[in-house]
Amino acid sequence: MRDTAGVDPVPEPPPDTSRAPGGETRCRDCALRPLKLFHEPTGDELALVQSLKRRERRLGPGEALIHEGQTDAPLYTMLQGWAFRYKTLSDGRRQILSFLMAGDFIGVQQKMGDAAAHGVETLTEALFCVFQRDALWELHRRSPMMGFNVTWLTAHEESMVDDTLLSVGRRSAEERIASMLILLFKRAAALQPDAGAGGVDFPLTQQHIADGLGLSLVHTNKTLRKLQRRGLHRIADGRLYLRDVKAMARLADLYGDGRPPGRPLV
Amino acid sequence: MRDTAGVDPVPEPPPDTSRAPGGETRCRDCALRPLKLFHEPTGDELALVQSLKRRERRLGPGEALIHEGQTDAPLYTMLQGWAFRYKTLSDGRRQILSFLMAGDFIGVQQKMGDAAAHGVETLTEALFCVFQRDALWELHRRSPMMGFNVTWLTAHEESMVDDTLLSVGRRSAEERIASMLILLFKRAAALQPDAGAGGVDFPLTQQHIADGLGLSLVHTNKTLRKLQRRGLHRIADGRLYLRDVKAMARLADLYGDGRPPGRPLV
DNA sequence: CGACGTGTTGATCTCTCTCAATTAGAGTGG
DNA sequence: CCACTCTAATTGAGAGAGATCAACACGTCG
Protein backbone atom coordinates (compact mmCIF):
# COMPACT_ATOMS: atom_id res chain seq x y z
CA MET A 1 0.00 0.00 0.00
CA ARG A 2 3.11 2.06 0.16
CA ASP A 3 3.69 3.09 -3.38
CA THR A 4 0.33 2.70 -4.91
CA ALA A 5 -1.53 5.73 -3.74
CA GLY A 6 0.65 8.37 -5.31
CA VAL A 7 1.67 6.67 -8.47
CA ASP A 8 -0.72 6.53 -11.31
CA PRO A 9 -0.77 2.93 -12.48
CA VAL A 10 -2.88 3.77 -15.44
CA PRO A 11 -1.56 3.16 -18.89
CA GLU A 12 -2.27 5.75 -21.48
CA PRO A 13 -5.72 5.45 -22.90
CA PRO A 14 -5.47 3.84 -26.28
CA PRO A 15 -5.66 6.31 -29.12
CA ASP A 16 -8.92 6.51 -30.87
CA THR A 17 -8.19 4.75 -34.09
CA SER A 18 -11.75 4.06 -34.75
CA ARG A 19 -13.80 7.10 -35.46
CA ALA A 20 -15.97 6.01 -38.31
CA PRO A 21 -16.29 9.15 -40.36
CA GLY A 22 -19.36 8.56 -42.40
CA GLY A 23 -20.67 5.17 -41.68
CA GLU A 24 -22.09 5.34 -38.20
CA THR A 25 -25.51 3.90 -37.77
CA ARG A 26 -28.27 5.80 -36.17
CA CYS A 27 -29.99 4.31 -33.17
CA ARG A 28 -33.17 3.86 -35.10
CA ASP A 29 -31.31 1.55 -37.44
CA CYS A 30 -29.33 -0.14 -34.70
CA ALA A 31 -28.65 -3.79 -35.28
CA LEU A 32 -29.69 -4.45 -31.72
CA ARG A 33 -33.26 -3.39 -32.17
CA PRO A 34 -34.56 -6.47 -33.98
CA LEU A 35 -33.16 -8.62 -31.20
CA LYS A 36 -35.74 -7.50 -28.64
CA LEU A 37 -33.29 -7.43 -25.80
CA PHE A 38 -35.41 -4.98 -23.91
CA HIS A 39 -38.80 -3.42 -24.25
CA GLU A 40 -39.43 -1.73 -27.56
CA PRO A 41 -38.29 1.84 -27.17
CA THR A 42 -40.49 4.68 -28.25
CA GLY A 43 -39.40 7.18 -30.82
CA ASP A 44 -38.60 9.67 -28.11
CA GLU A 45 -36.46 7.18 -26.30
CA LEU A 46 -34.55 6.39 -29.44
CA ALA A 47 -33.96 10.05 -29.97
CA LEU A 48 -32.74 10.39 -26.43
CA VAL A 49 -30.27 7.57 -26.77
CA GLN A 50 -29.17 8.97 -30.10
CA SER A 51 -28.50 12.32 -28.48
CA LEU A 52 -26.30 10.73 -25.83
CA LYS A 53 -24.33 8.69 -28.30
CA ARG A 54 -20.95 10.19 -29.02
CA ARG A 55 -19.49 7.97 -31.65
CA GLU A 56 -18.64 4.41 -32.51
CA ARG A 57 -15.46 2.54 -31.94
CA ARG A 58 -14.27 -0.46 -33.87
CA LEU A 59 -11.56 -2.79 -32.61
CA GLY A 60 -9.82 -5.77 -34.08
CA PRO A 61 -9.64 -9.10 -32.28
CA GLY A 62 -7.52 -9.17 -29.12
CA GLU A 63 -7.52 -5.44 -28.58
CA ALA A 64 -8.16 -3.63 -25.32
CA LEU A 65 -11.30 -1.57 -24.97
CA ILE A 66 -10.63 -0.67 -21.35
CA HIS A 67 -7.42 -1.22 -19.47
CA GLU A 68 -7.53 -2.42 -15.91
CA GLY A 69 -7.26 0.64 -13.72
CA GLN A 70 -8.03 3.10 -16.47
CA THR A 71 -9.68 6.15 -15.00
CA ASP A 72 -11.45 7.84 -17.83
CA ALA A 73 -13.37 5.06 -19.50
CA PRO A 74 -16.67 6.13 -20.99
CA LEU A 75 -19.83 4.10 -21.11
CA TYR A 76 -20.08 1.60 -23.94
CA THR A 77 -22.65 -0.58 -25.50
CA MET A 78 -21.65 -3.55 -27.52
CA LEU A 79 -23.02 -3.68 -31.05
CA GLN A 80 -21.16 -6.54 -32.68
CA GLY A 81 -18.61 -9.17 -31.80
CA TRP A 82 -17.39 -10.79 -28.62
CA ALA A 83 -15.35 -9.42 -25.74
CA PHE A 84 -14.68 -10.20 -22.12
CA ARG A 85 -14.21 -8.50 -18.78
CA TYR A 86 -11.29 -9.60 -16.64
CA LYS A 87 -9.21 -8.87 -13.59
CA THR A 88 -5.61 -9.82 -12.91
CA LEU A 89 -3.41 -10.28 -9.88
CA SER A 90 -0.06 -8.58 -9.76
CA ASP A 91 1.80 -11.72 -10.77
CA GLY A 92 -0.26 -12.06 -13.91
CA ARG A 93 -2.88 -14.59 -12.93
CA ARG A 94 -6.00 -13.63 -14.80
CA GLN A 95 -9.66 -14.28 -14.14
CA ILE A 96 -12.22 -13.64 -16.83
CA LEU A 97 -15.35 -12.33 -15.14
CA SER A 98 -17.80 -12.53 -17.99
CA PHE A 99 -18.10 -12.63 -21.72
CA LEU A 100 -19.75 -9.80 -23.56
CA MET A 101 -21.87 -9.95 -26.66
CA ALA A 102 -24.11 -7.68 -28.67
CA GLY A 103 -26.42 -5.72 -26.42
CA ASP A 104 -24.26 -5.75 -23.31
CA PHE A 105 -23.43 -2.65 -21.34
CA ILE A 106 -19.88 -1.88 -20.40
CA GLY A 107 -18.68 0.45 -17.73
CA VAL A 108 -21.74 0.90 -15.58
CA GLN A 109 -19.67 -0.33 -12.67
CA GLN A 110 -17.32 2.54 -12.40
CA LYS A 111 -18.44 5.69 -10.73
CA MET A 112 -17.59 8.61 -12.87
CA GLY A 113 -13.96 9.54 -12.49
CA ASP A 114 -13.19 6.31 -10.75
CA ALA A 115 -10.75 3.69 -11.91
CA ALA A 116 -12.07 0.78 -13.89
CA ALA A 117 -12.22 -2.23 -11.65
CA HIS A 118 -11.68 -4.54 -14.57
CA GLY A 119 -10.30 -4.60 -18.07
CA VAL A 120 -12.20 -5.32 -21.25
CA GLU A 121 -10.68 -6.98 -24.27
CA THR A 122 -12.12 -8.12 -27.56
CA LEU A 123 -12.18 -11.68 -28.84
CA THR A 124 -13.28 -10.85 -32.35
CA GLU A 125 -13.46 -7.75 -34.38
CA ALA A 126 -16.00 -5.72 -32.49
CA LEU A 127 -18.06 -2.59 -32.70
CA PHE A 128 -18.97 -0.45 -29.73
CA CYS A 129 -21.25 2.47 -29.22
CA VAL A 130 -19.60 5.19 -27.15
CA PHE A 131 -21.63 7.35 -24.79
CA GLN A 132 -20.65 10.42 -22.93
CA ARG A 133 -19.71 10.07 -19.33
CA ASP A 134 -22.93 11.32 -17.80
CA ALA A 135 -25.11 9.38 -20.21
CA LEU A 136 -26.18 7.04 -17.50
CA TRP A 137 -27.56 9.81 -15.39
CA GLU A 138 -29.15 11.58 -18.32
CA LEU A 139 -30.82 8.38 -19.33
CA HIS A 140 -32.31 7.93 -15.90
CA ARG A 141 -33.36 11.51 -15.64
CA ARG A 142 -35.00 11.83 -18.99
CA SER A 143 -36.40 8.36 -19.36
CA PRO A 144 -37.10 6.51 -16.14
CA MET A 145 -38.22 3.57 -18.21
CA MET A 146 -34.85 3.23 -19.88
CA GLY A 147 -33.17 3.84 -16.56
CA PHE A 148 -35.17 1.02 -15.09
CA ASN A 149 -34.02 -1.16 -17.95
CA VAL A 150 -30.42 -0.36 -17.23
CA THR A 151 -30.88 -1.36 -13.63
CA TRP A 152 -32.42 -4.57 -14.74
CA LEU A 153 -29.66 -5.30 -17.22
CA THR A 154 -27.05 -4.60 -14.59
CA ALA A 155 -28.77 -6.97 -12.20
CA HIS A 156 -28.93 -9.56 -14.92
CA GLU A 157 -25.26 -9.20 -15.64
CA GLU A 158 -24.62 -9.77 -11.96
CA SER A 159 -26.65 -12.92 -11.97
CA MET A 160 -24.45 -14.26 -14.74
CA VAL A 161 -21.39 -13.61 -12.61
CA ASP A 162 -23.20 -15.36 -9.76
CA ASP A 163 -23.56 -18.41 -11.95
CA THR A 164 -19.90 -18.40 -12.82
CA LEU A 165 -18.98 -18.02 -9.18
CA LEU A 166 -21.03 -21.08 -8.35
CA SER A 167 -19.19 -22.99 -11.06
CA VAL A 168 -15.73 -21.90 -10.10
CA GLY A 169 -16.37 -22.35 -6.42
CA ARG A 170 -18.18 -25.62 -6.37
CA ARG A 171 -18.14 -27.48 -9.68
CA SER A 172 -15.49 -29.90 -10.91
CA ALA A 173 -13.57 -29.12 -14.05
CA GLU A 174 -15.89 -31.27 -16.18
CA GLU A 175 -18.94 -29.67 -14.71
CA ARG A 176 -17.59 -26.17 -15.15
CA ILE A 177 -16.82 -26.67 -18.78
CA ALA A 178 -20.15 -28.29 -19.50
CA SER A 179 -21.91 -25.44 -17.80
CA MET A 180 -19.96 -22.76 -19.63
CA LEU A 181 -20.45 -24.33 -23.03
CA ILE A 182 -24.19 -24.56 -22.55
CA LEU A 183 -24.53 -21.03 -21.29
CA LEU A 184 -22.40 -19.51 -24.02
CA PHE A 185 -24.13 -21.57 -26.64
CA LYS A 186 -27.49 -20.26 -25.56
CA ARG A 187 -26.39 -16.67 -25.56
CA ALA A 188 -24.71 -16.95 -28.92
CA ALA A 189 -27.67 -18.79 -30.41
CA ALA A 190 -30.06 -16.11 -29.20
CA LEU A 191 -28.16 -13.51 -31.17
CA GLN A 192 -27.74 -15.51 -34.30
CA PRO A 193 -31.05 -16.10 -36.02
CA ASP A 194 -29.86 -19.08 -38.05
CA ALA A 195 -28.53 -20.76 -34.93
CA GLY A 196 -28.94 -24.17 -33.44
CA ALA A 197 -28.43 -26.74 -36.13
CA GLY A 198 -24.98 -25.87 -37.37
CA GLY A 199 -23.57 -24.64 -34.11
CA VAL A 200 -22.65 -21.10 -33.22
CA ASP A 201 -19.64 -18.88 -33.60
CA PHE A 202 -17.18 -19.54 -30.84
CA PRO A 203 -14.10 -17.33 -30.82
CA LEU A 204 -12.65 -18.38 -27.45
CA THR A 205 -9.30 -20.10 -27.22
CA GLN A 206 -8.78 -22.74 -24.57
CA GLN A 207 -6.87 -20.16 -22.61
CA HIS A 208 -9.98 -18.01 -22.41
CA ILE A 209 -12.05 -20.94 -21.24
CA ALA A 210 -9.43 -21.73 -18.62
CA ASP A 211 -9.30 -18.14 -17.40
CA GLY A 212 -13.05 -17.95 -17.28
CA LEU A 213 -13.34 -21.07 -15.17
CA GLY A 214 -10.37 -20.76 -12.87
CA LEU A 215 -8.61 -23.73 -14.43
CA SER A 216 -5.15 -24.23 -15.89
CA LEU A 217 -4.75 -24.32 -19.62
CA VAL A 218 -3.51 -27.89 -19.65
CA HIS A 219 -6.29 -29.27 -17.54
CA THR A 220 -8.83 -27.36 -19.58
CA ASN A 221 -7.48 -28.97 -22.71
CA LYS A 222 -7.62 -32.46 -21.27
CA THR A 223 -11.11 -32.01 -19.92
CA LEU A 224 -12.39 -30.49 -23.14
CA ARG A 225 -10.89 -33.42 -25.01
CA LYS A 226 -12.59 -35.89 -22.73
CA LEU A 227 -16.01 -34.35 -23.20
CA GLN A 228 -15.52 -34.15 -26.92
CA ARG A 229 -14.43 -37.78 -27.14
CA ARG A 230 -17.52 -38.68 -25.17
CA GLY A 231 -19.57 -37.06 -27.89
CA LEU A 232 -20.98 -34.22 -25.83
CA HIS A 233 -19.77 -31.41 -28.02
CA ARG A 234 -17.38 -30.38 -30.71
CA ILE A 235 -15.37 -27.24 -31.22
CA ALA A 236 -13.84 -26.71 -34.62
CA ASP A 237 -13.01 -23.84 -36.92
CA GLY A 238 -14.24 -21.29 -34.47
CA ARG A 239 -17.63 -22.88 -34.05
CA LEU A 240 -19.22 -24.71 -31.16
CA TYR A 241 -21.57 -27.62 -31.71
CA LEU A 242 -23.52 -29.17 -28.87
CA ARG A 243 -24.09 -32.77 -29.78
CA ASP A 244 -25.72 -34.03 -26.62
CA VAL A 245 -27.27 -31.15 -24.76
CA LYS A 246 -29.12 -33.48 -22.39
CA ALA A 247 -25.97 -35.18 -21.20
CA MET A 248 -24.17 -31.88 -21.09
CA ALA A 249 -26.86 -30.28 -18.95
CA ARG A 250 -26.99 -33.27 -16.66
CA LEU A 251 -23.26 -33.07 -16.19
CA ALA A 252 -23.41 -29.36 -15.48
CA ASP A 253 -26.29 -29.76 -13.05
CA LEU A 254 -28.14 -27.17 -15.10
CA TYR A 255 -31.85 -27.42 -15.42
CA GLY A 256 -34.17 -25.79 -17.86
CA ASP A 257 -33.04 -22.24 -18.24
CA GLY A 258 -30.48 -22.35 -15.54
CA ARG A 259 -32.69 -22.25 -12.49
CA PRO A 260 -32.00 -24.40 -9.52
CA PRO A 261 -33.54 -27.85 -9.70
CA GLY A 262 -37.09 -28.52 -8.74
CA ARG A 263 -35.97 -30.45 -5.76
CA PRO A 264 -36.36 -30.14 -2.03
CA LEU A 265 -34.36 -26.98 -1.89
CA VAL A 266 -35.87 -26.32 1.47
CA MET B 1 -44.73 5.47 -20.70
CA ARG B 2 -46.45 8.64 -21.52
CA ASP B 3 -43.91 10.81 -19.81
CA THR B 4 -40.69 9.11 -20.66
CA ALA B 5 -38.22 10.60 -23.05
CA GLY B 6 -37.55 14.25 -23.26
CA VAL B 7 -39.95 15.07 -20.49
CA ASP B 8 -39.12 15.24 -16.85
CA PRO B 9 -41.14 12.78 -14.83
CA VAL B 10 -44.27 14.08 -13.29
CA PRO B 11 -44.14 14.36 -9.54
CA GLU B 12 -46.88 12.45 -7.79
CA PRO B 13 -49.07 13.99 -5.15
CA PRO B 14 -47.27 14.02 -1.81
CA PRO B 15 -47.44 10.53 -0.37
CA ASP B 16 -48.54 9.79 3.12
CA THR B 17 -45.57 9.99 5.41
CA SER B 18 -47.43 9.59 8.62
CA ARG B 19 -48.12 5.91 8.38
CA ALA B 20 -45.83 4.02 10.64
CA PRO B 21 -47.71 1.17 12.23
CA GLY B 22 -46.70 -0.28 15.56
CA GLY B 23 -43.08 0.32 16.29
CA GLU B 24 -41.77 0.48 12.76
CA THR B 25 -39.37 3.23 12.05
CA ARG B 26 -40.16 5.83 9.50
CA CYS B 27 -37.73 6.37 6.69
CA ARG B 28 -36.85 9.78 7.99
CA ASP B 29 -35.59 8.11 11.13
CA CYS B 30 -33.98 5.21 9.36
CA ALA B 31 -30.80 3.96 10.94
CA LEU B 32 -29.24 3.92 7.51
CA ARG B 33 -29.40 7.64 7.01
CA PRO B 34 -26.50 8.66 9.21
CA LEU B 35 -24.29 6.23 7.36
CA LYS B 36 -24.19 8.25 4.16
CA LEU B 37 -24.33 5.26 1.93
CA PHE B 38 -25.72 7.30 -0.90
CA HIS B 39 -26.41 10.91 -1.63
CA GLU B 40 -28.47 12.64 1.02
CA PRO B 41 -32.10 12.18 0.00
CA THR B 42 -34.44 15.13 -0.11
CA GLY B 43 -37.58 15.24 1.92
CA ASP B 44 -39.62 14.30 -1.10
CA GLU B 45 -37.45 11.32 -1.78
CA LEU B 46 -37.74 10.13 1.77
CA ALA B 47 -41.49 10.46 1.53
CA LEU B 48 -41.47 8.49 -1.69
CA VAL B 49 -39.50 5.64 -0.21
CA GLN B 50 -41.73 5.71 2.82
CA SER B 51 -44.78 5.37 0.62
CA LEU B 52 -43.34 2.31 -1.10
CA LYS B 53 -42.37 0.63 2.11
CA ARG B 54 -44.80 -2.07 3.07
CA ARG B 55 -43.55 -3.29 6.38
CA GLU B 56 -40.56 -4.58 8.25
CA ARG B 57 -39.48 -8.12 8.79
CA ARG B 58 -37.34 -9.38 11.60
CA LEU B 59 -35.56 -12.72 11.50
CA GLY B 60 -33.45 -14.61 13.97
CA PRO B 61 -29.99 -15.89 13.10
CA GLY B 62 -29.85 -18.69 10.55
CA GLU B 63 -33.28 -18.08 9.10
CA ALA B 64 -34.20 -17.92 5.43
CA LEU B 65 -35.31 -14.61 3.99
CA ILE B 66 -35.64 -15.94 0.46
CA HIS B 67 -35.57 -19.56 -0.58
CA GLU B 68 -33.72 -20.58 -3.69
CA GLY B 69 -36.25 -20.81 -6.45
CA GLN B 70 -38.92 -18.90 -4.58
CA THR B 71 -41.14 -17.11 -7.05
CA ASP B 72 -42.85 -14.37 -5.12
CA ALA B 73 -40.06 -12.68 -3.25
CA PRO B 74 -40.51 -8.97 -2.74
CA LEU B 75 -37.80 -6.35 -2.73
CA TYR B 76 -35.92 -5.91 0.52
CA THR B 77 -33.50 -3.53 2.04
CA MET B 78 -31.33 -4.57 4.89
CA LEU B 79 -31.53 -2.43 8.01
CA GLN B 80 -29.59 -4.37 10.61
CA GLY B 81 -27.57 -7.53 10.93
CA TRP B 82 -25.75 -9.81 8.54
CA ALA B 83 -27.01 -12.16 5.86
CA PHE B 84 -25.73 -13.85 2.74
CA ARG B 85 -26.83 -14.76 -0.75
CA TYR B 86 -26.11 -18.29 -1.96
CA LYS B 87 -26.74 -20.86 -4.64
CA THR B 88 -26.62 -24.62 -4.35
CA LEU B 89 -26.14 -27.54 -6.69
CA SER B 90 -28.60 -30.38 -6.57
CA ASP B 91 -26.30 -32.55 -4.48
CA GLY B 92 -26.04 -29.90 -1.81
CA ARG B 93 -22.78 -28.18 -2.63
CA ARG B 94 -23.27 -24.56 -1.70
CA GLN B 95 -21.60 -21.39 -2.86
CA ILE B 96 -22.08 -18.17 -0.96
CA LEU B 97 -22.21 -15.36 -3.49
CA SER B 98 -21.94 -12.38 -1.21
CA PHE B 99 -22.49 -11.19 2.29
CA LEU B 100 -25.12 -8.61 3.04
CA MET B 101 -25.04 -5.88 5.60
CA ALA B 102 -27.01 -2.79 6.52
CA GLY B 103 -27.84 -0.77 3.44
CA ASP B 104 -27.76 -3.58 0.94
CA PHE B 105 -30.54 -4.22 -1.56
CA ILE B 106 -31.97 -7.67 -1.94
CA GLY B 107 -33.99 -8.98 -4.81
CA VAL B 108 -33.22 -6.52 -7.56
CA GLN B 109 -32.03 -9.45 -9.65
CA GLN B 110 -35.30 -11.16 -10.15
CA LYS B 111 -37.69 -9.86 -12.69
CA MET B 112 -41.08 -9.56 -11.20
CA GLY B 113 -42.80 -12.92 -11.05
CA ASP B 114 -39.61 -14.72 -11.78
CA ALA B 115 -37.94 -17.30 -9.60
CA ALA B 116 -35.22 -16.16 -7.27
CA ALA B 117 -31.88 -17.15 -8.69
CA HIS B 118 -30.39 -17.41 -5.25
CA GLY B 119 -31.38 -17.86 -1.64
CA VAL B 120 -30.82 -15.41 1.19
CA GLU B 121 -30.22 -16.45 4.77
CA THR B 122 -29.39 -14.51 7.91
CA LEU B 123 -26.26 -14.87 9.97
CA THR B 124 -27.45 -12.80 12.89
CA GLU B 125 -30.73 -11.49 14.04
CA ALA B 126 -31.65 -9.14 11.24
CA LEU B 127 -34.12 -6.49 10.27
CA PHE B 128 -35.36 -5.94 6.75
CA CYS B 129 -37.45 -3.32 5.11
CA VAL B 130 -40.05 -4.85 2.80
CA PHE B 131 -41.12 -3.09 -0.37
CA GLN B 132 -43.95 -3.83 -2.69
CA ARG B 133 -43.16 -5.66 -5.87
CA ASP B 134 -43.23 -2.73 -8.25
CA ALA B 135 -41.31 -0.49 -5.90
CA LEU B 136 -38.29 -0.60 -8.09
CA TRP B 137 -40.16 0.76 -11.06
CA GLU B 138 -42.01 3.34 -9.01
CA LEU B 139 -38.75 4.52 -7.57
CA HIS B 140 -37.27 5.02 -11.00
CA ARG B 141 -40.36 6.66 -12.34
CA ARG B 142 -40.90 9.08 -9.54
CA SER B 143 -37.32 9.81 -8.59
CA PRO B 144 -34.77 9.33 -11.34
CA MET B 145 -32.11 10.29 -8.87
CA MET B 146 -32.95 7.43 -6.56
CA GLY B 147 -33.32 5.15 -9.56
CA PHE B 148 -29.86 6.13 -10.64
CA ASN B 149 -28.62 5.29 -7.19
CA VAL B 150 -30.17 1.87 -7.37
CA THR B 151 -28.38 1.22 -10.63
CA TRP B 152 -25.18 2.33 -9.05
CA LEU B 153 -25.68 0.15 -6.00
CA THR B 154 -26.48 -2.82 -8.18
CA ALA B 155 -23.34 -2.27 -10.18
CA HIS B 156 -21.35 -1.96 -6.99
CA GLU B 157 -22.76 -5.21 -5.70
CA GLU B 158 -21.68 -6.82 -8.93
CA SER B 159 -18.18 -5.53 -8.55
CA MET B 160 -18.01 -7.21 -5.17
CA VAL B 161 -18.98 -10.50 -6.75
CA ASP B 162 -16.31 -9.84 -9.37
CA ASP B 163 -13.74 -9.58 -6.61
CA THR B 164 -14.85 -12.83 -5.08
CA LEU B 165 -14.74 -14.52 -8.45
CA LEU B 166 -11.16 -13.39 -8.89
CA SER B 167 -10.34 -14.87 -5.50
CA VAL B 168 -12.06 -18.16 -6.00
CA GLY B 169 -10.76 -18.55 -9.51
CA ARG B 170 -7.18 -17.49 -9.10
CA ARG B 171 -6.08 -17.10 -5.50
CA SER B 172 -4.68 -19.80 -3.23
CA ALA B 173 -6.51 -20.69 -0.04
CA GLU B 174 -4.31 -18.42 2.05
CA GLU B 175 -4.75 -15.55 -0.33
CA ARG B 176 -8.51 -16.02 -0.51
CA ILE B 177 -8.92 -15.98 3.21
CA ALA B 178 -6.70 -12.96 3.64
CA SER B 179 -8.63 -11.13 0.98
CA MET B 180 -12.01 -11.99 2.43
CA LEU B 181 -11.06 -11.01 5.96
CA ILE B 182 -9.80 -7.63 4.85
CA LEU B 183 -12.83 -6.89 2.71
CA LEU B 184 -15.33 -7.94 5.35
CA PHE B 185 -13.44 -6.07 8.00
CA LYS B 186 -13.62 -2.89 6.00
CA ARG B 187 -17.31 -3.21 5.36
CA ALA B 188 -18.11 -4.03 8.93
CA ALA B 189 -15.92 -1.24 10.22
CA ALA B 190 -17.61 1.27 7.96
CA LEU B 191 -20.93 0.49 9.55
CA GLN B 192 -19.74 0.46 13.09
CA PRO B 193 -18.67 3.90 14.23
CA ASP B 194 -16.55 2.65 17.11
CA ALA B 195 -14.71 0.26 14.83
CA GLY B 196 -11.08 -0.39 14.18
CA ALA B 197 -9.31 -0.76 17.46
CA GLY B 198 -11.23 -3.53 19.09
CA GLY B 199 -12.10 -5.44 15.96
CA VAL B 200 -15.53 -5.78 14.43
CA ASP B 201 -18.47 -8.09 14.82
CA PHE B 202 -17.93 -11.22 12.84
CA PRO B 203 -20.78 -13.69 12.86
CA LEU B 204 -19.53 -16.11 10.20
CA THR B 205 -18.70 -19.69 11.05
CA GLN B 206 -15.81 -21.36 9.28
CA GLN B 207 -18.37 -23.14 7.16
CA HIS B 208 -19.57 -19.80 5.83
CA ILE B 209 -16.04 -18.72 5.06
CA ALA B 210 -15.45 -22.01 3.26
CA ASP B 211 -18.66 -21.71 1.25
CA GLY B 212 -17.87 -18.15 0.35
CA LEU B 213 -14.42 -19.02 -0.93
CA GLY B 214 -15.03 -22.35 -2.61
CA LEU B 215 -12.95 -24.23 -0.06
CA SER B 216 -13.63 -27.24 2.11
CA LEU B 217 -14.38 -26.74 5.76
CA VAL B 218 -11.31 -28.62 6.91
CA HIS B 219 -8.91 -26.79 4.70
CA THR B 220 -10.44 -23.49 5.68
CA ASN B 221 -9.87 -24.32 9.29
CA LYS B 222 -6.26 -25.26 8.75
CA THR B 223 -5.53 -22.18 6.70
CA LEU B 224 -7.26 -19.89 9.14
CA ARG B 225 -5.23 -21.41 11.92
CA LYS B 226 -2.03 -20.89 10.02
CA LEU B 227 -2.71 -17.22 9.44
CA GLN B 228 -3.74 -16.71 13.01
CA ARG B 229 -0.61 -18.44 14.32
CA ARG B 230 1.40 -16.18 12.06
CA GLY B 231 -0.18 -13.25 13.87
CA LEU B 232 -2.10 -11.82 10.94
CA HIS B 233 -5.48 -11.87 12.56
CA ARG B 234 -7.59 -13.26 15.34
CA ILE B 235 -11.17 -14.42 15.43
CA ALA B 236 -12.72 -14.92 18.82
CA ASP B 237 -16.09 -14.55 20.45
CA GLY B 238 -17.74 -13.47 17.26
CA ARG B 239 -15.28 -10.67 16.61
CA LEU B 240 -12.59 -10.26 14.01
CA TYR B 241 -9.34 -8.49 14.79
CA LEU B 242 -6.82 -7.65 12.11
CA ARG B 243 -3.44 -7.62 13.75
CA ASP B 244 -1.24 -7.12 10.73
CA VAL B 245 -3.18 -5.50 7.95
CA LYS B 246 -0.06 -4.82 5.94
CA ALA B 247 0.97 -8.44 5.82
CA MET B 248 -2.59 -9.50 5.25
CA ALA B 249 -3.01 -7.13 2.31
CA ARG B 250 0.30 -8.18 0.84
CA LEU B 251 -0.73 -11.80 1.05
CA ALA B 252 -4.08 -11.08 -0.55
CA ASP B 253 -2.51 -9.03 -3.32
CA LEU B 254 -4.90 -6.27 -2.40
CA TYR B 255 -3.77 -2.74 -2.79
CA GLY B 256 -5.22 0.40 -1.35
CA ASP B 257 -8.91 0.16 -1.77
CA GLY B 258 -8.87 -2.97 -3.85
CA ARG B 259 -7.60 -1.62 -7.12
CA PRO B 260 -5.19 -3.55 -9.22
CA PRO B 261 -1.54 -2.90 -8.55
CA GLY B 262 0.49 -0.21 -10.20
CA ARG B 263 2.38 -2.69 -12.25
CA PRO B 264 2.79 -3.45 -15.94
CA LEU B 265 -0.78 -4.54 -16.35
CA VAL B 266 -0.38 -4.25 -20.07
C1' DC C 1 -26.63 -36.47 30.46
C1' DG C 2 -26.73 -37.16 25.56
C1' DA C 3 -27.39 -34.65 21.16
C1' DC C 4 -25.64 -31.11 18.40
C1' DG C 5 -23.04 -27.44 16.34
C1' DT C 6 -18.49 -25.60 15.81
C1' DG C 7 -13.68 -25.82 15.85
C1' DT C 8 -9.27 -28.78 15.48
C1' DT C 9 -6.00 -32.04 13.88
C1' DG C 10 -3.92 -36.16 11.64
C1' DA C 11 -3.86 -39.32 7.71
C1' DT C 12 -4.82 -40.43 3.16
C1' DC C 13 -6.40 -39.57 -1.53
C1' DT C 14 -7.11 -37.24 -5.90
C1' DC C 15 -8.10 -33.67 -8.80
C1' DT C 16 -5.75 -30.22 -10.84
C1' DC C 17 -1.37 -27.79 -11.50
C1' DT C 18 3.25 -27.35 -13.34
C1' DC C 19 6.89 -28.74 -16.31
C1' DA C 20 8.20 -30.53 -20.78
C1' DA C 21 7.84 -31.73 -25.40
C1' DT C 22 5.40 -32.35 -29.83
C1' DT C 23 2.24 -31.19 -33.67
C1' DA C 24 -0.15 -28.27 -36.75
C1' DG C 25 -1.33 -24.04 -39.02
C1' DA C 26 -0.58 -19.09 -40.24
C1' DG C 27 2.46 -15.54 -41.32
C1' DT C 28 7.00 -13.57 -42.79
C1' DG C 29 11.14 -12.85 -45.07
C1' DG C 30 14.78 -14.30 -48.08
C1' DC D 1 9.43 -22.44 -52.20
C1' DC D 2 11.52 -23.07 -47.84
C1' DA D 3 13.42 -21.88 -43.31
C1' DC D 4 11.85 -19.52 -39.26
C1' DT D 5 8.65 -17.83 -35.88
C1' DC D 6 4.35 -17.68 -33.23
C1' DT D 7 0.15 -19.09 -31.49
C1' DA D 8 -3.04 -22.73 -30.23
C1' DA D 9 -3.88 -27.38 -29.31
C1' DT D 10 -2.14 -31.86 -27.35
C1' DT D 11 -0.17 -35.35 -24.44
C1' DG D 12 2.72 -37.50 -20.82
C1' DA D 13 4.76 -37.41 -16.16
C1' DG D 14 5.44 -35.94 -11.68
C1' DA D 15 4.15 -32.81 -7.80
C1' DG D 16 1.08 -30.60 -4.73
C1' DA D 17 -2.72 -27.89 -2.91
C1' DG D 18 -6.75 -28.92 -1.26
C1' DA D 19 -10.50 -32.60 -0.61
C1' DT D 20 -12.18 -36.41 2.01
C1' DC D 21 -12.31 -39.45 5.98
C1' DA D 22 -11.99 -39.99 10.96
C1' DA D 23 -11.57 -38.56 15.74
C1' DC D 24 -11.76 -35.68 19.34
C1' DA D 25 -12.56 -31.33 22.26
C1' DC D 26 -15.74 -28.00 24.01
C1' DG D 27 -19.88 -25.39 24.96
C1' DT D 28 -24.86 -25.01 24.70
C1' DC D 29 -29.23 -26.83 25.38
C1' DG D 30 -33.40 -29.58 26.08
3D architecture notes:
The structure is a homodimer of 266-residue chains. The first copy, chain A, has 266 residues and is of the alpha+beta class. The first copy, chain A, folds into 2 domains: 27-159, Jelly Rolls; 172-252, Orthogonal Bundle (Arc Repressor Mutant, subunit A). The first copy, chain A, has helices at residues 43-52, 135-142, 144-170, 173-191, 206-213, 217-229, 245-252, and strands at 53-59, 64-66, 75-80, 83-88, 94-100, 105-106, 119-122, 126-131, 200-201, 233-236, 239-242. In chain A, the strands form 3 sheets. Chain A has a 4-stranded antiparallel β-sheet. In chain A, strand 4 (83-88) and strand 5 form a beta hairpin. The longest helix of chain A is centred in the middle third of the chain and has 27 residues, at 144-170. The radius of gyration of chain A is 19 Å and the shape is globular. The first copy, chain A, binds a DNA duplex (30 and 30 nucleotides) through helix 6.
Summarize the structure.
Chain A has seven helices and eleven strands.
Give structural attributes:
homodimer, 266 residues, alpha+beta, Jelly Rolls, Arc Repressor Mutant, subunit A, four-stranded antiparallel β-sheet, globular, disordered C terminus, DNA-binding
Task: Present the secondary structure layout.
2 copies of one chain form a homodimer.
Chain A: H1 43-52, E1 53-59, E2 64-66, E3 75-80, E4 83-88, E5 94-100, E6 105-106, E7 119-122, E8 126-131, H2 135-142, H3 144-170, H4 173-191, E9 200-201, H5 206-213, H6 217-229, E10 233-236, E11 239-242, H7 245-252
Antiparallel strand pairs in A: 1-8, 2-7, 3-6, 3-8, 4-5, 4-7, 9-11, 10-11
Chain A binds a DNA duplex (30 and 30 nucleotides) through residues 172-173, 205-207, 215-219, 221-225.
